[in-house]
Amino acid sequence: MSTTNHTAHSEYIDSDTGKMGMWLFLFTELFLFGGLFIVYAVMRSKYGEDFHHAATELNAFIGATNTVVLLVSSMTVAMSLTAIQKNQTGLAMGLIFITLLLAGVFMMNKYFEYGHKFELHLYPGSEVMHNLPHGEIMFFGLYFLMTGLHLFHVLVGGILLTIILLKIKSGKINQEHFLLHENGALYWHLVDLIWIFLFPLLYLIT
Amino acid sequence: MNNHDSHITSYALNFKVLLVLLILTTITILVIKLHLGAFTVAMALTLASVKTAIVLTYFMHLKFENLILRLMVGGVFLLFAIIIVITFIDYYFR
Amino acid sequence: MNNQTTTTPLNFLNHQTGLWSWLTSTDHKRIGLLYMYSIVTFFLVAAVLGLLMKIEKSAPGETIMTAQTYNALFTLHGIIMIFIVVIPGLAAVFGNIFLPIMIGAKDVAFPKLNLFSFYLFLTGAGLGLYSQFANGHSPDTGWTFYVPYSAEASSNVVIALTAAFTLGFASILTGLNFIVTIHTMRAPGMSWFRMPLFPWSLYATAWIQLLATPVVGITLLMVIAERTLHVGFFDPKLGGDPVLYQHLFWIYSHPAVYVMILPAMGVVTEIFPTFSQKPVFGYVPIALSSLAIALVGYFVWGHHMFTSGMSYESRWFFSLLTFLVAIPSAIKVFNWLSTMYGGSVDLQPPLLYAISFIFLFTIGGFTGLTLGSVATDIQVHNTDFVVAHFHYIIFGGMGFGFFAGIHYWFPKIYGKLYSIRWANIGWGILFTGFNLLYFPMFIMGIQGMPRRYFDYDPKFQLGQTISTIGAIILFTGLITMISNLIYHAYKGATAPANPWHGVTLEWQIPSPPPHENFDEIPVITRGPYVFDNPHTTK
Amino acid sequence: MTTMFSGASNLAEGVDRAFIFIFSVAFIFIIAIVALIFYILIHFSRKKNKNPQQFSGNTTLEIIWTVIPVIIVLIMFYFGWAGFAPMRKVPADAMPIKVIGRMWVWSFDYGNGKISKDLVVPLNKDIKLNLYSEDVNHGFFVPAFRVKEDVIPGYNNYMWFRAISKGTYDIFCTEYCGLAHSGMTGKVIVLDNADFDKWFADLKVSDNTVHPGLAIIKQNACLTCHSLDGTKIIGPSFKGIWGSKRIVVTAQGEKEMEGNDEYIRRSILDPNADVVKGFNKGLMQSYKEVLKAEDIDKIVDYFKTAGGQK
Ligand code: HEA
Ligand code: HEA
Ligand code: CUA
Ligand SMILES: [Cu+2]
After folding, report:
1. Residue C314 in contact with partner chain B when CB distance is under 8 A
2. In terms of pLDDT, which residue wins out, D245 or A157?
3. Tell me, what DSSP letter sits at residue D45?
4. How big is the CA angle at C252 (ends C249 and C257), to the nearest 5 degrees?
C-alpha cells in the first residue's frame, strides 16, 4: 500500500479504497437477495406444481423485454465509463442518458405488469389472492417482494446515475477522477445481475 | 489518488459481451420452451450463472482487478452456494 | 472534560469543544467514545431489566410483575443486549478508537460513513425503545422473533423488527469500513503478519457483519411483510414454513455470536503480552484461528434447531460442524496461556479481567459443546442451561473482555489513571456475583427448568434464590467498577503515555492521542510484539 | 424430584452417557487450566521473575493442541450421536398417541374420541407421540425421559420412548408461545399394564352431552384465562356473565353494559374495544379469524342456557 497520505480531510477517496468499499457493499446486496433466493428455493421444492401454474400468469414477453433492456443498459453504462476514461465527456453523458432512458423503459414495463396484476386483484392481501392455493400465494408473494425490491434498486441506481450525469456535466467527474462513475456503474451491473436470476426463476420456469 | 492505472475496456469488447449475453438469454428461453423436465431448472440456473460470470468479468472489470478482489468475489459466491446446499440437507432428507 | 490546565497539550478530547463538535465529529476516536457512552447507557438499562427478571423469579408465582411484563422484559432485555450492546459493542467502541491507531493510520477509510453508521445505530436503538412505549403493548416474542407467534402477537413487533433491521445496517457499514481500512490503510511496512492481533480479530468480525447481517435483514423484512401484507412466507396458516424462518434467522444469528466474541478475544490477546512483557505465543495460529472461527461459524447454525423437526441428517451434520468450530477457540486459549508462561506476569486489573475471561469463556465453551452434542441438547435445549451458557460466554466472555479492554486502555483514552485498588475490589464482587447468578442455572437447566418461564415449579426454588442473590451482588460489583472509572476520568492522576509498557503503536503516541493520531505516519519494520527491553521493575 | 441421573425412559441412558463424558472432559480441562493459571501467577509473577523469556511459538505444541482437541470432540460427537440416533427410529409397533398443543394446554388424543389431559402410558411399552400444534410453536419436553421435540404447526413432528419406571413426571412447554407459556405444563403418568387398561377403559369418549358452546370454549383454550367457577385468572370468570351488569372501561371512560348477546359477541371479536374493569387491555386477542359466526352463536347460547347464568 504505497500511498500513505490518507487523512480524514482528503478531498478524493483513493480509488482502490472507494472501489473496494463498493464491492463490499455489493456483497451485502447479494446476500440480501440471497435470503429471498433461499426462500424461493425451499418453497419451490415444496410447492412445485403451484409454482408451475402460477408462473404462467406472468407475462414472459414483458420479462424477456426487460431482460434485454437491462442487458443493453448494462452495456451502455460500461461504455460510458470507457468514454470518460478516454475523455469523451459528451459521449459519456449521452450513454448515461441512454441508460437512464432504458431504466425508464424498464420501470414503464413494470408499471404495466403490476397494473395488470392489480386489475386481476392479484396483490398481497387481496381477496383473490387469499383464495388461491397456498403455493400460488407464496409464488406471488415472492414475485412481488423480489421484483419490488429489485425495482427499488433500479430506482436507486437511476438516481445515482442522474447524479453522475450532473457531475460529469459540472466537470467533477472527469478523466482523472471518476470513482463515483465507476461505483455507479458497478451498482447498475448488480441490478442487472439480480435480474439475470429473477427472470428465469420467476417468468420462465413454468 | 486518481484512476490513472485503471484499465480501459474498448467499446467493441463491450458490444461483443452484450451480444454473447443476448444469445445466452435466447438460449435460456429456448431451453425452457423445450420442457426438459428436471433439467430445466438446472439448465436455466447454469446459464444464468454463466451470464453472471460474464457480466462480472467484463462489465464489472473483474478481469482487470487485483487478485484480492477477485478472490473475494469468488469466495462470496462460494459461501452463498454452500449455505444453500447446507439448508437443503434439511429439506432434501425430509 | 479535560480542559483544566493550559499545560495539557491539544488532544482529540479537547482540540475542539462543545457538544456540537462531538456530534458532528468524523474523528474515529470521538465516534468510538460516542458509541461507548450510548452502549454503556443501554447496557445499564437492559441490565436493570435482567435484575428485575431475577427478582421476579426469587420465588415461584407472581412476585413483582405479571407474566405479560415478564415476557416483555426478557424480549427487551434480549433485543437491547444482543442488537444494541454486544453486536456493535467491542468492534464499534475499541475498534473505532484503536483500529486506525494500531495499524498506523490517521482515521478509518470512510470517516463520514462511520459517523453515518453511528446515527443509524442511534436511530435503530431509538426505535427499539420506541417499540416499548408506542401504542399497543411492548413486543413479547423473545429476541428470536420466532414465527408464527411473532406474526400473530398483537404487540408492537413491527417496530421492533424495524429497529433490528436498522441496527443491522449500522453494523454492516461498520464492518465494511473496517475491511477497507485494514486492506488499504496499514502503515508502510505493516504487512498482514505484522499487524497486531486485535485488528486481525476485527477483520474476521467485519466479514461476518458484512455477509451474515443482510440475511437477517431480509428475513425480518419478510416477517414485516407477513404482518402487514399477509403473505405467509413463514406462517403455516398461509402455507408458509416456520422452520424455514428459523434457518434464516440462525444463518445470521449464529455467526453473530462470533461477532460478539471475536473482538473480545482480540482485546485479551493484546493484554496478555503486555502484562507478561513477552511476545504473543503463536501469533500466526491466533490470527488464522480468527478467520477459521468466522468461516466455520457460518455452517453450524442448525445447532439451534436440533428439536425443530429438522431432518435426521441435518441434525448430526450440524452437530459435527459445531464441534469443529470449537477447535480454533481451543487453539486460542492454549496460546494465551503459553503467552503468560515464562513471562514476568504483573497482575493488574486488565490482566485480572483477561484471566477471568479465559475461565468464564472456557466454562461457557464447554457447556456450548454440551449443547452441540445432539443427545444432550435434546435434554437442555430451551432450558436455563442455554441461558447460563450464553451469559457465561457473552457476559463472561464479551462482557469481561470489554471490562479488560476499558481497564487496559482507559489511561490512553482519558490520559488519567484509575484506582487499581478499587478496580480489584470491583472485580472481586463482580466475579463472585457472576458465578452465583449463573452457575445454578446450569444445574436447574439439566433438571428441566425451561427458559422464558415467568413461573416455576417450587422444586427449583433453591437454585433460583441463589441466582437472585448473585444478581444483586453482581449489581453491586458493576456499580463499584463503573464508579471507579467515571470518578477517575475526571479526578484521576495524569497518566503517562505508556503506563503498562505496551509495545503496539497506540502506546507510542501521547495519552490522550492527538487529533490526527500521528504527526508522521510510522514506518513498520518488524512484528507487533517485540519486547526489546522488557520492563520488569516498578 | 427428578434429578439428573434418574432417567425414566429407555432413551435416558444414551443421553446421560453423553453428559457424563462431556462433563468429565470439561472438568479435567477446567481444573487443569485453573491450576496452570495459578502456577503461572505464582511462579512467573513479576516479583519472582524479572527476566521474561522471549520465545514466541512452537509448531509441535500447536499441532498437539490442535489434534488432541479434534480427537476429543469427535468422541463427544460420537456419544451425542449415539445417544440421539435411537430417538428417531420409532419401533414399528409403537402405540401412537396424538399430542395436541395449543395456547396453553396440552391434550392427548388416544383415538376414537378418547381425549385425556394427562399423558397416561403403560410401563415398558413403546409409545409414539405425534405432535400437532393448532396455533404457534410449542415444545414438548419430559425431562425425566430426556425427550424433547418442538410442536410446530404444519409439521408432523414426532417422538417416541418407552417408560421404564412407574411414576408421575413433568411435562413442560419449551418453545415460547406467548403469555402463559410457563403455565403450559402437564403430567405423564406411567402405570403398569393392568392399571393402564383400567384407566383407558374408564376414559370417557369426549362426550357429546357437553354443551356445544362449552366444547368450543374448551377447544379454543378460553379456559386458560377464564374460569367457569368464579375464580379470576387472566380474564374475568364466565360464571354468571349472562344478564349481569359489566363495568367496562372504554376510550371515553367507564360505563356499564349488560351481558347480552351483542356484548359477548363484541367481547370476542373486538376484545380491546371495551375492557372489563380491573383487567388489562391487549391480552385477549380477537377471535375473528378463529371462530366462525355459528361457533360464537353456540358460545352465546351456552352462556344463556348453562354455566354462564347467574
Ligand atoms: C458470544 C456468543 C457466543 C459464543 C462465542 C458461543 C459459542 C458456542 N456456542 Fe453458543 N449460544 C450463544 C452465544 C454464544 N455461543 C447464544 C446467545 C445462544 C442462545 C440463543 C438463543 O436461543 O437465545 C447460544 C446457543 C447455543 C446452542 C443452541 C442451544 C439450544 O438452543 O439448544 C448451541 C448448540 O450447539 C451452542 C453451541 C456453542 C458452541 C459449541 C460454541 C463454541 O464456539 C465454544 C468454543 C469454546 C470452547 C470449546 C472453550 C475453549 C476451549 C478450550 C478450553 C480447549 C479445550 C477444548 C476442547 C478439548 C474441545 N450455543
Ligand atoms: C450482553 C448480553 C447479556 C447480558 C450482559 C445479560 C445480563 C443479564 N441477564 Fe440476560 N439475556 C440475554 C443477554 C444478556 N443478559 C439474552 C440475549 C437473553 C435471551 C432473551 C430471550 O430469551 O429472548 C437473556 C435472557 C435472560 C434471562 C432469561 C429469561 C428467561 O428465559 O426467562 C435472565 C433471567 O434471569 C437474564 C438475566 C440477566 C441478568 C440478571 C443479567 C445481569 O448480568 C445484569 C447485571 C447488571 C445489573 C444487575 C445492573 C447494573 C446496573 C447498574 C450498574 C447501574 C444502574 C443504572 C441506573 C440507575 C441507570 N437474562
Ligand atoms: Cu406452549 Cu410454550
Ligand atoms: Cu449458535
Report:
1. yes
2. A157
3. B
4. 115
Cα→Cα distances D152→A28, C137, D187, Å: 32, 26, 20
Please report residues of C whose CB lies closer than 8 A to that of D66: 327, 330-331
From C150's Cα to the closest Cα of chain B, the distance in A is 22
* CA gap A72, A55 in Å, rounded: 25
Chains that touch B (3 or more CB pairs under 8 A): A, C
Which residues in chain C are closer than 8 Å to B93, comparing Cβ atoms? 311-314
CATH class of the domain defined by C24-508: mainly alpha
Is residue A199 a part of any domain in this protein?
A: yes
Cell numbers for A77, please give them: 453504462
Chain length of chain C:
538
The cell for B80 is 452463498
Over the stretch C341-392, which tens digit does the pLDDT of each residue have?
A: 988 899 999 999 999 999 999 999 999 999 999 999 999 999 999 999 999 9
pLDDT digits (tens, 9 = 90+) for C143-187: 998 988 887 766 678 888 888 889 999 999 999 999 999 998 899
Going by alpha carbons, the residue nearest to atom 46 of ligand 2 is C47
Q: Chain B contacts of A30, Cβ < 8 Å?
A: 76-77, 80
Ligand 2 contacts CB of residue C194 (under 6 A): no
Domain ranges of chain B: 11-92
Give every strand in the sheet of D95-102, ordered side by side: D115-116, D105-109, D95-102, D126-133, D157-162
What pairs with residue D117 in β-bridges? none
Q: Give residue A166's domain range.
A: 15-203
- Is A165 part of a structural domain of the chain? yes
Q: How far is CA C129 from CA C80, C140, D84, D190, D208, in A?
A: 9, 13, 42, 48, 51
Which CATH number characterizes residue A189's domain? Answer: 1.20.120.80
Q: Any idea which ligand is nearest the CA of C482?
A: 2
The correct answer on CATH 2.60.40.10 for the domain covering D95-202 is no
Q: Among the residues of D92-228, which ranges form H helices?
A: 193-202, 212-219
The DSSP call for residue C135 is: S
- Please tell me the distance from the alpha carbon of residue C473 to that of residue D244, in angstroms, as a whole number: 52
**Per the structure block, which three cell numbers stand in for D275?**
375492557
Say yes or no: B71 contacts chain C, CB-CB below 8 A. no
pLDDT at C4 over 50: no
Is A61's Cβ below 8 Å from some Cβ in B?
A: no
Domain boundaries, chain C: 24-508
Q: Which fold has domain D212-307?
A: Cytochrome Bc1 Complex; Chain D, domain 2 (1.10.760)
DSSP code per residue over C468-495: HHHHHHHHHHHHHHHHHHHHHHHHPPBP
Residues D184-202, mean pLDDT to the nearest whole number: 91
Q: Does C53 sit in the ligand 2 pocket, CB within 6 Å? A: yes
CB D139 within 8 A of CB C377: no
| Pairing verdict, β D119-122 and D186-191 | parallel
Alpha helices, H only, A4-133: 15-46, 48-55, 60-85, 89-119, 127-130
Does residue C76's CB lie within 6 angstroms of at least one atom of ligand 2? no
The residue contributing the CA closest to ligand 2 atom 37 is C50
Round to the nearest angstrom and report the end-to-end CA distance of chain A.
52
- The CA distances from residue A167 to A163, A171, D153, in Å, are 6, 6, 56
Q: How far is it, in rounded angstroms, from Cα D176 to Cα C71?
A: 9
Q: How far apart are CA C73 and CA C51, in angstroms?
A: 10
C-alpha A101/C-alpha A80 separation (Å) is 14
Global ipTM: 0.90
D179 SS3 class:
coil
| CATH number of the D12-88 domain | 1.10.287.90
